[in-house]
Design brief:
Layout: H1 15-19, H2 22-43, H3 60-81, E1 85-88, E2 93-100, E3 103-110, E4 118-120, E5 130-131
Length: 132
């Protein structure tokens, strides 16, 4: 049975094919990290427990947080549309379903790397990655 049985990818990439996505993934991951940092900053402005809003209209900070979450969701959908699976936003880790030596694996990319040069088996993670 394919390791992707429950999360069937739209395609399996070769390392070379996945590497062509790196410029776009770098831009998307940088935006994603910025929006995540914006949420962290905005959450620091929220007082807990949140006092009831007069007339139930919410707050400017709450609206700003919602806008950031919408941007985050949009970026995640863009990454996923290429089959990417975000593993860690802070570390800039994305896995792509791929084939290495005829085996279905996760092609592992970390922001800053100029090519896909590592993979790990399904069910494994970054610490288990191996050079292609």
């Amino acid at each position: 049975m394919s390791p992707f049985f429950f999360d069937m990818p739209t395609r399996l990439y070769t390392p070379e094919e996945a590497s062509t996505l790196i410029p776009e993934m770098t831009q998307l991951m940088q935006k994603l990290q910025q929006h995540q940092n914006n949420v962290r900053d905005l959450m620091g402005e929220v007082e807990f427990p949140v006092p009831p809003a007069m007339y139930n209209v919410g707050s400017a900070v709450g609206s700003d947080i919602a806008v950031e979450f919408i941007a985050i969701e949009t970026i995640i959908e863009q990454i996923q549309s290429h089959g990417g699976k975000i593993k860690d936003i802070d570390e800039g880790l994305i896995d792509f379903p791929g084939l290495v030596n005829g085996r279905e694996v996760w092609l592992c990319w970390q922001m800053g790397e100029s090519a896909i040069t590592h993979f790990h088996d399904f069910g494994k993670g970054f610490s288990d990655r191996k050079e292609i």
